[in-house]
């Protein structure tokens, strides 16, 4: 399913209820958070920062329909060794405000991410993306690497490493059953449909109630928001992934076929694969948080995490 191209619309101002739910969800973060609003040609981007200011930067890109609040279970672990920048995608539910240049193509998202990194004063960083955020992270890494090989590169390669958490549309498409169960989110968006869908996909282990409420409100208030996507990046060709890449798959994911994703990712040079047992697609950022955080941290620091396989 390919969403319609995104078009520019007046900036959406979240309701007081959404903002309250947002702050309640962010209160789940166990570490102090710096709130940053970065201006750009696209509007204002909300970023939540934590961790040592002089530590290596790690940019977190959330999945579709969620916000940067979803990283509550990973914040403390990852902030031990990295400066964390959790970004609300512009033009989607959250506190980023799309009030400027239109967002229509993946290249617009890449330009937006360039601006985010520049606004943060970050020359290059590692990227960690979940679900749709994984597609964005990998696509941006391919885009950034392509600029490095152009005759006159204008910017340095901005991506050092990539971690993809049960990424969608990178190595395989969605299961039809997943899309069918997700349909009520678009037909009758709200907390009730969101809770039912997450309970089905996570097999009874949805995120904290604060996150479910925020996602439900976001689905209803940002109903006209369009998902920008494009073709899968051809990383299976000779040369493979543009930077060292770790793919961590959810053992109980209902979003796609685990074996198909594993097989295609395994054929990609430069990609390492691991599986997190007992978690679904949507419970990936918070289910088995300690194990996930360890694997991510080990990869970012040392390369191949313990227990993963090619």
Furnish the topology, listing elements before pairings.
Elements: H1 16-26, E1 34-40, E2 43-50, E3 57-61, H2 75-78, E4 83-87, E5 97-98, H3 106-120, E6 125-130, H4 132-148, E7 159-165, H5 176-187, H6 191-201, H7 209-221, E8 245-250, H8 258-266, E9 271-276, H9 289-302
Parallel strand pairs: 3-4, 3-6, 6-7, 7-8, 8-9
Antiparallel strand pairs: 1-2, 2-4, 2-5
Helix pairs in contact: 1-7, 3-4, 5-6, 6-7
Offer a concise description of the structure.
With 310 residues, the protein is α/β, with parallel strands linked by helices.
Number of strands: 9
- Compute the average pLDDT: 89
What Rg do the Cα atoms give? 18 Å
Distance between the termini: 30 Å
H-E string: HEEEHEEHEHEHHHEHEH
The proportion of strand residues reads 15-25%
Secondary structure category: alpha/beta
Biggest sheet overview: 9 strands, mixed
Q: What overall geometry do the principal axes of the alpha carbons give?
A: globular
SS element count, helices: 9
Low-confidence stretches: 1-9, 304-310
Helicity level? 25-40%
Can you describe this structure?
It is built from nine helices and nine strands. Strands 1, 2, 3, 4, 5, 6, 7, 8 and 9 form a nine-stranded mixed beta sheet that branches. Helix 5 runs antiparallel to helix 6 and helix 6 packs across helix 7. With 310 residues, it is an alpha/beta fold. Strand 1 and strand 2 form a beta hairpin. It starts with 15 loop residues before the first helix and ends in an 8-residue tail after the last helix.
């Amino acid at each position: 399913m390919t969403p319609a191209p995104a078009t520019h619309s007046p900036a959406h101002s979240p309701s007081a209820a959404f903002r309250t739910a947002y702050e309640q969800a962010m209160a789940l973060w166990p570490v102090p958070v710096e709130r940053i609003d970065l201006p750009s040609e696209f509007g204002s981007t909300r970023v939540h920062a934590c961790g040592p200011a002089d530590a290596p930067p790690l940019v977190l890109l959330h999945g579709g329909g969620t916000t940067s609040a979803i990283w509550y279970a990973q914040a403390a672990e990852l902030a031990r060794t990295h400066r964390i920048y959790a970004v609300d995608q512009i033009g989607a539910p959250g506190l980023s405000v799309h009030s400027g240049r239109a967002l229509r193509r993946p290249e617009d998202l890449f330009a937006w991410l360039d601006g985010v990194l520049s606004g943060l004063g970050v020359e290059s960083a590692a990227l960690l993306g979940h679900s749709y955020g994984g597609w964005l992270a990998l696509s941006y890494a391919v885009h950034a690497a392509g600029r490095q090989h152009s005759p006159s590169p204008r910017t340095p390669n901005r991506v050092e490493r990539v971690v993809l958490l049960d990424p969608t549309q990178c190595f395989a498409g969605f299961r039809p059953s997943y899309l069918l169960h997700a349909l009520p989110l678009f037909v009758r968006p709200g907390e009730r449909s969101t809770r039912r869908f997450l309970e089905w996909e996570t097999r009874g282990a949805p995120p904290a109630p604060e996150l479910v409420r925020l996602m439900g409100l976001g689905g209803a208030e940002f109903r006209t928001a369009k998902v920008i996507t494009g073709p899968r990046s051809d990383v299976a060709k000779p040369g493979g992934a543009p930077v060292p890449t770790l793919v961590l798959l959810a053992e109980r994911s209902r979003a796609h076929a685990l074996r198909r994703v594993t097989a295609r990712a395994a054929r990609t040079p430069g990609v390492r694969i691991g599986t997190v047992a007992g978690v679904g697609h949507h419970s990936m950022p918070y289910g088995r948080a300690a194990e996930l955080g360890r694997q991510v941290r080990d990869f970012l620091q040392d390369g191949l995490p313990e227990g993963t396989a090619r």
